[in-house]
Amino acid sequence: MRLQFKTCSTIAATILLIQPASAGLIAYGICQTGCNTLAVACYAAAGFTFGTIAAAAAPPAIVACNSALGTCSAACATIALTPTP
């Protein structure tokens, strides 16, 4: 379990380092897809299936995955407000 948490933490750190692009709604959709893909990989690294864990019963690795997904999604939200050139 320790190795899985370390892998998930690495993925979460990678998500937090991603810089958003400025290209409007299409970029927003691409950004959200990237965030969700990384979240699925984070869950898989922790040995779980994305979308099948209740928040109250989530182990620390899944909480870290969810936190990273929220941060990544928030970064994507700024893209939707950016005008497309």
TrEMBL record:
The keyword Signal applies. Residues 1-23 form the signal peptide. It comes from the Eukaryota. Keywords: Signal. This is Cysteine-rich protein. The lineage of its organism: Eukaryota, Fungi, Dikarya, Basidiomycota, Agaricomycotina.
